[in-house]
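chain below, 435 aa
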Amino acid sequence: MRTKLLITVVAIIMIVVLLFSVFSGFFGSDFHLLNNKPVVSISYPKNQATVASLVMISGTASDADAADIVETVEIKIGDGDWTSVDGTNLWSYDWATYSYEDGSYDISVRSYDGKDYSDVKTITVTLANAQHVDSGSHKWAVFIAAANFPTDNESKLGNGGLNLAEDMVSFFIDTYDFATSNIWILFDDGWIRKDNGYGARLKTLQERSHEYAITYGGATKENVMTTLDYVISESNKYEDSEVFLWIFSHGYGDSNNTKTGGKIFQSSEIFLWDDTLTDKELGALLVPLKSKKTCIIVDACYSGGFADKTILNLHTSLLFRSGIPKNGRIVISGSSKFRPGYASTTEGPLFSILWFQGLKTGDADGCKPGLLHLGVLRNLRLFKNGEVSVEEAFYYARIQLRTDELLSEYREMQPQINDRYPRRGLLLSHKEMFL
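prediction:
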């Protein structure tokens, strides 16, 4: 009996060994009996939500198998094709709805772990882009800040640019009657990160609680271009349209070249989240803009070229003109084309902080160009009217940089202005721009 049992056991072992030897090459080293499908979810927007403008769709994805990771997440909007999103475990996708018809749209997502797709997760939203300006005024404002994209923390600029942009937005809405539907903040890749921008992703800008229902998105080149194209198209419909554009980021230059920053034979250039933008590119993008009341502020190192200025209010050569300054526009740079700028990681870029301070507090009332546009405060009632213009806020910032001992180490910034409002020329540009 024992002999028969032993023979049976040996036979079973031999069969198992034989089967394994035959099929092991077929299965390979990755052989497993069962693969758990990954899962995916949509965090924003919620099902049945109403959306408009630039929608940053976001969510999570995961895989239960310890050896597997989520390789890709894909999204499909309406009857469109599947498209890869940014990120995996925490993912996002910018949906620019400007060219879409209003109506109901299904948003579907799926994740892939290299072997299987997840079940498709689908929500339905209603697209309803604004057909009118909800404040009754024809004003548009776009705030762009790319601050934390470098891999090394020493180059990060923190969330100060976002904080300042939101402060300016609140003031523009409350004081200048800007419509919430006509305001955009494009920051980094659209995500808030831990430790003032230095850490890992926390949540998207749109997922946070907001004081005002403005539009948030990432400062990618595609988002910047599509948003500005939309603003230009919409503002061109009105004779009295007003456009405000603020850009803050790293500027491209040679910090070892303390005299010119290496920018004598180069255009000014700033970094967006995934690309760069030169002054000439922005000039070309703004060619169709018809608004006769436009303020553009670019606050970055070596940014004077955006205002077609080098240093000491001197013009760049014709070969390097950006094409941005035109009649009806005031173009301001936070530093000269030859000098770096400075920023606080929690409060934002220094020049813009001072410019907004003069505007918000009213302290800039009476600040005039003075010699070489360095700024001078005129205390006579003749020069004050109880309001602060864009130009007065600029000269206020220049005065502070020149006279405030706490700011003495930043005096070399030399912000620049190209004032062509309402027309080019000394005699035709005496009128100031009030937002």
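The chain has two domains: 39-127, 139-420. The chain has seven helices and 23 strands.
thats it, cya
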